[in-house]
Amino acid sequence: MSDTAMxxxxxxxxxxxxxxxxxxxxxxxxxxxxVMALIGPSGAGKSTLIRCVNRLVEPTQGEIxxxxxxxxxxxxxxxxxxxxxxxxxxxxxxxxxxxTVMENVxxxxxxxxGFWRSFLRRYxxxxxxxxxxxxxxxxxxxxxxxxxxxxxxxxxxxxxxxxALLQSPSLLLVDEPTASxxxxxxxxxMRLIRELCVERGLAAIINIHDVALAERFAxxxxxxxxxxxxxxGRPDTLTPSVLTTIYGEEEWSTEPEPADDADxxxxxxxxxxxxxxxxx
Length: 280
Hints:
It holds the Pfam family ABC_tran. It comes from Aidingimonas halophila. The protein is of the alpha/beta class. It is built from ten helices and ten strands. Helix 7 runs parallel beside helix 8 (183-200).
């Protein structure tokens, strides 16, 4: 594994009770600035892997290090501080429906301002200014005073992205960001995530079912099956035989879906030259 890795997983395993293990001997190294897509069938362990990184799920064994800090050994205030640098973007958005868009975005500063200042809406002016900038960057400046429950799925995901970035993370953990979105909106959201990673030098692990989106927007693809890594490589090496190894027998020779002209623009999708660092 690369010596320049910002995130390392070594021998990570997760077992839920007496069930079959969800993760088995996971070794990964994620360089700074790399966008990694996790693909694989349902139940392969993708969400479990992401949640083990930020300790929403406790690994059964193994070690996880972020910037040299052993996350698996942290507890209490130390773990809360470490989580500041790991922002989560959720499949179901995890917004508070009764709060405004602005209030939801500002909740990304909870790890810095504390519960009571957040509860009383007493955020520093610098945080408010940054939140306004982030809403503009994700294309939502007009919606700052709307309640979250008045937004479409794509709009809610944009607010979730803005909230995550307000946390000032070095690592994004993204769990099925397009699962509830139509194809065009899915491309827009994946393009936005990639653009923001490039702009800010962020590393990202994205759990995604859509193989075409993974190939188009990730620098690196890791395939999981039955809790094990069965593929780790560049998007252009994801051949039909590799996909069969990950998912089982299927017809992989379908024509790619044409992109809408109005949907194009921004940072280019990943190319072979975009891969950072080595593979684990």
